[in-house]
Design goal:
127 residues, seven-stranded mixed beta sheet, three-stranded antiparallel beta sheet, MORN repeat protein
Length: 127
Amino acid sequence: MNQSIIRPEKIRVDIENLEYWKTGTYTGVDYKYNGKPFTGFAVLGYYNNGQIEGEWEYHDGEKLGWEIDYYENGNIKEKTLTYGATSIVFYEYDEQGNIIDHGFVAPKTIYNECARLIGMQEIEEDD
């Protein structure tokens, strides 16, 4: 398998191995893993060849960070940075990994707030 996953330093756990904790502050359901609020990627499913189909990032139990869909060849199909129910920035790729569309759909201040929470580098904000 040669999958182009982002943030490979983060733990990845099948979503069915997470335990319900409570209704989240930002959106949806909060999860625990091994008795602690889950921080990492919840894997939503796999292709027959073992590649990840999709995954969502969680921070302290809440869905916060990247939502990613993959092609069967392991390349990223699309990824969206989310802050709760708010989409911040999205990227779409062809099967060879070339970017075909992208853009911010929320202010960069929200990107930076999310980046601080999940441990990503902040970006320069527009004036």
